[in-house]
Amino acid sequence: MNTEIQNELLKSEMSKDISRRRLKKHLKEYTTDNSLFLVLHLNHFLQQEKNEPHKIKKALKVFFKSIDNEVFSKKSNKQLRRYVMIENLKKIGITHIQTAIEIPQHLNSVALKKIIKRNLNDQIVKLEHITNIYDHDGLIDYNTKDIHYFEKNAFAFDEVNSYKFA
């Protein structure tokens, strides 16, 4: 392999690593010590929306708003702190959502899990995994582990549905 090709490969890997570190730093702003980690699956129609992530984001907005309304109240504008990652695994044709969501002080994890399950709808159809978070750095590593293998726009931080306190 000639030096020019090696340099290009090295630059590419360094760029991916810098992107991963930036994303990790960014995600830390959205996590709390008392959170749940969820993996959500979309209905078949939204699974096919690979080129139109705004439809996925819109469906997620409705889902998270219904959770926020049940946790706080419909009249309140309060939101649970959370980050949302949309992961599009093109090789196997699956788009799924990974999110960390805070457990508010007035609820425990069991109560919040019940609220989340009650608010699954015809677009956010399946809760594949839900667990308490004890290792935020490990979780963020997990969320960014495959960033090197994704095609452009296949792995996206969803700024519309993520929320952190000001």
What does this structure look like?
With 166 residues, the chain is of the alpha+beta class. Helix content is 41%, strand content 22%. It has a 5-stranded antiparallel sheet. Strand 2 and strand 3 form a beta hairpin. Helix 1 crosses helix 5. The longest helix is centred in the first third of the chain and has 26 residues.
Question: What is the compact description of this entry?
Answer:
The protein has helices at 3-28, 44-47, 53-71, 109-118, 136-144, and strands at 35-42, 82-89, 94-102, 124-132, 155-157.
Order of strands, widest sheet: 4-1-3-2-5
Query: Termini distance?
Result: 50 Å
Mean pLDDT: 81
Note the quaternary state here: single chain
Task: Round the Cα radius of gyration to an integer and report it.
Answer: 17 Å
Overall SS class:
alpha+beta
Task: Return residue spans where pLDDT drops below 50 for at least 5 consecutive residues.
Answer: none
Shape: globular
Count every helix, treating DSSP H or I runs of 4 or more residues as helices.
5
Main beta sheet: 5 strands, antiparallel
Can you lay out the helices and strands and say which pair or pack?
Elements: H1 3-28, E1 35-42, H2 44-47, H3 53-71, E2 82-89, E3 94-102, H4 109-118, E4 124-132, H5 136-144, E5 155-157
Antiparallel strand pairs: 1-3, 1-4, 2-3, 2-5
Helix pairs in contact: 1-5
Features:
166 residues, 5 helices, five-stranded antiparallel beta sheet, alpha+beta
